[in-house]
Structures are given as structure tokens and as C-alpha cells.
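Record pair follows.
FIRST:
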Amino acid sequence: MGWYNKRLAKSLWVFHVSASPCNNCDIEILDLLTPRYDVERFGIKLVGSVRHADVLLVTGIINDKVAPRVRRLYEQAPKPVFVVGIGACPTSRCCFKESYNISPLRETIIPVNLYVEGCPPKPEAMIDAIVKLVGVLNG
């Protein structure tokens, strides 16, 4: 597994999972691909299929309606896959935590390896989180 992690750290392919977000975090994720931040210089590439992903970027609150779909996406991703919760919604559920349709425990749906705080988090914070993930993979 160690050799796989070292290869993975050189080129992370990420898939964006939108789980009922307000779209602020989605816009910041797309900002990462612009020439200003250019995350592809770090080997980070946004892919269109979960079957090619090494990292899942989850935005939004996982409610009862999207929970089975998010779980299915996680199961379709090749293992090992790392899950990064982007923003305040997957972290603390912010103002929706007492809502009737929020799934009780997000850890029972998918395991989250890393959280990036903020509403929405700045692109620099997301880059910092991914760099820390790469550092963990390099061991």
C-alpha cells in the first residue's frame, strides 16, 4: 500500500460530489482550476467520472434524499479513495443541523478523511488541505 500512496501523491485525480450545497463552495472549487491558482501544477486534476477518482470533494449537507446517491458514488470509486469535506456544511451542518431531512450521521454514509473549514473556504485553504493530504500520502 505504501508504494501505491507514493504514486498517488504525485498525481491526485479529484471528483466533485455535490450533496445539496448552496453552490458557494462549488464556485471556489472551480476557481482552483483557473490560471490564478492552477492546481494542475501540483498534479491535481478534476475528473468527470468517479471511477477515475483518487479523492472525492464533498460539498453540501448530506440529506436523506442524496445520501444513497453519495454512498453509491463512494462505492463506485476505486479504493483507496480519500474523502474531503469542503465547507461548513459537511463539517458542522451549520444552520441545517436541526432540520428534519438531514441524515443523522454522515460517517455512516461515507468516511470523511479531511475537512476544510469555511463558508465558503478560500481556494488557498483547499490547496493547503490537499498539500497536507499529499504529505500524509508521502509518509
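SECOND:
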Amino acid sequence: MSGAGKTTALKMLEDAGFYCVDNLPIPLVGKFGELTQGSGEIHNAALGIDVRSGEELSQLEDTFREWEAGKFPFEILFLDASDAILIKRYKESRRSHPLAGRDRLDRGIARERTKLAFLKKRADYILDTSKLLTRELKGELDRIFLNREGYSNLFVTILSFGFKYGIPSDADLVFDVRFLPNPYYNEDLRGHTGNEPCVQEFVKQGGTAQIFLEKLHEMIDFLLPYYVQEGKNQLVIAIGCTGGKHRSVTIANLLYGCYAPRRDIGLKIEHRDIENDRRVKQE
């Protein structure tokens, strides 16, 4: 999708040793494949293709069939992002969408999704860049194309938050941990956060946090394959306490630790409200 990070991804692949070409005319894609296959110098190549190819896009199907028949090895990475993020990126860059013309931006994006649907359906990997920082995108590309780790197209964000600042609008699963021991009422711990061992030990006292974590881990393990099966690309697991500073941060960190060793999913952790109390005091 235009605005999903294709140019950035190509630069990263180029830095990793790939021979990269952007926006090659579709009739030349097959020829390009032949040239790379016959070259002793090019071992990995990446082609950037987007909706600017126009009506010629449909010709890619013929090229793919020829490559498959000739056992020419290729993979498709589809970069996607939510409509809201794409609109935001276009407004920030002040560029016009190739299919919007004088129409509204969201309608151009809708047309683009229709035209690229066959590519997304064929894709070996789908990366939703809506929430990815540049370094996180690089990490995912390295995992897929350099380290050749198993990949399920699912990117999981574990997000801590404070209920008093509102439930995250993009959360898929929300868990309330306000039943756990609250370090806020301990004057020695109030100024610390769930990133620190002293707070984590306080929250874990009594064993309830560990039992909850084990049950939560078990449930998410059960759910993940079904999300993958349904074609979900982004999953936001939100852990909330009152202020988003102690209990939710602790549990989010522990849950992240459970999934960090897994190489078949993308993973990141965010603490949305961990600094909010400090900001409020400064104001």
C-alpha cells in the first residue's frame, strides 16, 4: 500500500545486500527475473511494486505462473497499514495519493486496496506497519529474509495503560489488573515504576500475579493460532491498572518475557501512561 513503507523497506534490504529496484514496469519484471537468475553476482534481489503500475498490475499473475512453472524462487512481502495511519502519513508528507485524483484520500486508498487485493492474497508475508518504528520494521525484515525464522504475519503489541486515562482505542484484548497489590500506597514505591524490580516484587507478593500470568499466557497461546488462521495481522493486548505506572507495567513486562523467545510472531511492548503522573505534576 502506498504510504506503508515500501521505499524504507527497500533501502533496508539494499543495506542487507539485496539488489533493489523500485517501480520497474510490469512487462520487464519477468526479464528482470531472468537476468538475476543468470547473474553470478546477484544472489538476492528485491523488486518494489505498487499501484503506480496501473492496469499492467494484472500482468503479474502471468509472471508468477511462469516463475512457478520454471521453479524460479520468489517470495512476496506485502506491506500494509490501517486507513487512518495511511491518511495521517499522506497528510504529514503533503503528497497526493496516486488513485485519489481530485477525490478524497480515503476513496483513493479504497481503490488501491481493491487493485492490490490479489497481491495481498498471494503474499507469503504480510507486514502491517501501522505501529512499527523504523528500527522495528528493520528487525522484522531481518527476521524474515536474513535469519529465515518462521513467521506467521502476526505482530503482537503488549500495551500497559491507566484506566483513568482511557482504554486504548486500538486494543483487541483488555485485561484489568487492579486486583493486584498496589505499590501506589507504599510511599517508598510510589515514585518508582513497574520497570523496576522493587515494584515488580511488590506486585508479585502473595502469588496472585503469577497465577494470573500463567492463566493469561495459556489463554493467549490458545487464541494466537486462531487469529493467524483468520488472517489478523495486528493484535494489541492491553493490560490496565489505575494509573498505568505500577501493576499494568509489571504484568505487561512479565507477559512480554513469556513471548520474547518466540520467533514466529512479531512482538513489541509499550507503556503508554507510565510517565503521565509526572507530566500532570509538572503542569
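COMMENT: Residues 6-146 form a domain with the Rossmann fold fold (CATH 3.40.50.300).
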